[in-house]
Amino acid sequence: MQEIKGDKHIEYKGVFHLTFSLNFTCNLSIPNYVGLGKGVSVGFGIVKQLGEKVEPLKKRRNIENDKD
What we know:
Elements lengths: L2 E10 L2 E9 L33 H11 L1
Antiparallel strand pairs: 1-2
């Protein structure tokens, strides 16, 4: 985890939940808008990529093969 951008309490079905917006890095390409963790079905745990997009591995392999 790199940075906690903010937190807030959200009420869902009469129960208050502490939610966080944060930045993290991992050595894996995660698609935008995939859900991680508990509460995904109600909109929690949404992932969005920040910064430069990494080219898909298949495209990178084709570029590397063309150089040979």
